[in-house]
Design a protein that fits this description.
The mean pLDDT is 93. This protein is an alpha/beta fold. It has two domains: 234 residues, Spore Coat Polysaccharide Biosynthesis Protein SpsA, Chain A (Alpha-Beta Complex); 100 residues, UDP N-Acetylglucosamine Acyltransferase, domain 1, CATH 2.160.10.10. The strands form six sheets. A seven-stranded mixed sheet has the order 5-4-1-6-10-7-11, sandwiched between helices. A six-stranded parallel sheet has the order 13-16-19-22-25-27. The chain contains eight helices and 27 strands. α3 crosses α6.
Length: 368
């Protein structure tokens, strides 16, 4: 299906504190493979063609604003709105509406679509966002929500279907009946919504629930009861709905993200010997025909050239290693290794160190 002519906006809900993370950082800024979680989300949205985004901030808003401006894709236009009190996802989206255009300005045209994504789901792929938006256009829905089927749905909102394939409502775990709680179909937290329906539906939200909050999920039932079409989009990979709320979930997301990163380098002609023991940040670049041996850590703004040999047991941070160079059992930080140079074994190169092309550092040396 070709690219839609409809105007599309993204809304990222990133106002929460994330107390279960036990961190001084706001949850969206917790690092994952070299970047804040929210940076991975913004990159996926931008790759899916969403060039305008509204980011809802709240807890430590200045830190979130600074980090988003630093790590967001260069071509992405971002507006920030502040949710002064965290009163739920529905209230957060209502706050975001203040930065979105008036739908009356699109009279006679297809209404713009708003893609809503939580700020703690870094495993969401651009391809999935594109597919959900295409499904939304094809179904001509008022709202299309992503869902998945999981073995253990405890804690997740359940997606309840009505007649046919239409979604009737989402019920939060704490508010579900025993019958509803028995369902294994969970809300993934991603939505494509027509902008013209948003404001009227959000005005009808009520905090009469177990959490005392305004649930975005209640918009589904409001629109369904009003007779508007509500569609479900089943995720092919349930892991994309993986929210990061504590350190255990962060470790699992990190493992999954690193698998993706390593698989991507393998597909691009980089030789990873035992990928499970090799750690590469999402910010790293590696040239074709380079070999990475086990126990290697490549982090930060690191660039490795073509035909290089890295490892085993190497840590390289924020450094450049040129074509054909070899780095063996050493640690490099903020340095430059020239073409076909040899570093190590057991060398330490500190910030600013330079190894000229076609030279050797020798063993057990420290260079500054």
């Amino acid at each position: 299906m070709g690219e839609s002519a409809r105007v599309r906006f993204a809304v990222v809900l990133a106002a929460g504190e994330g107390t279960r993370m036990k961190s001084s950082r706001p949850k969206p800024l917790v690092r994952l493979c070299g970047k804040p979680m929210i940076a991975h989300i913004l990159e996926a949205l931008y790759e899916a063609g969403l060039e305008e985004a509204v980011v809802v901030i709240g807890f430590k808003s200045d830190s979130v604003r600074e980090s988003v401006n630093r790590f967001a894709p260069a071509g992405m236009r971002i507006a920030f709105v502040e949710q002064s009190r965290q009163r739920g996802t529905g209230d957060a989206l209502a706050t975001a509406l203040t930065a979105l255009p008036d739908p009356l300005g699109y009279a006679g045209k297809e209404p713009p679509v708003v893609m809503v994504v939580p700020g703690d789901t870094p495993l969401l792929r651009a391809a999935t966002i594109s597919s959900l938006l295409e499904a939304h256009d094809s179904a001509k829905s008022a709202v299309t929500l992503a869902y998945s089927e999981v073995d253990d749905p405890a804690g997740y909102g359940r997606v309840i279907f009505g007649k046919g394939d239409a979604v009737a409502k989402i019920v939060e775990d704490k508010d579900a009946t025993d019958e509803e709680r028995a369902s294994h179909l969970i809300n993934a937290g991603f939505y494509a919504l027509n902008l013209d329906f948003l404001a009227p539906a959000l005005r009808r939200l009520s905090p009469k629930n177990a959490q005392g909050e305004y649930y975005l999920t209640d918009v589904i039932e409001i629109l369904a009861k009003a007779g508007y079409p509500v569609a479900g989009f089943r995720l092919a990979d349930p892991i994309e709905a993986h929210g990061v709320n504590d350190r255990h979930q962060l470790a699992e997301a990190e493992r999954r993200m690193r698998e993706r990163i390593n698989a991507s380098f393998l597909m691009r002609g980089v030789n990873l010997v035992d990928p499970s023991s090799i750690y590469i940040d999402s910010t790293v670049e590696i040239g074709q025909d380079t070999t990475i041996w086990p126990g290697s850590f490549l982090v930060g703004q690191t660039a490795i050239g073509k035909g290089a040999e890295i490892g085993p047991e190497v840590r390289i941070s924020d450094s450049v290693v040129d074509d054909g160079a070899r780095v063996l059992r050493s640690e490099l930080e903020g340095c430059h290794v020239g073409r076909e140079a040899v570093v190590g074994p057991y060398a330490v190169l500190k910030s600013g160190a330079k190894v000229p092309p076609e030279t050797e550092t020798g063993s057990f040396v420290v260079l500054e």
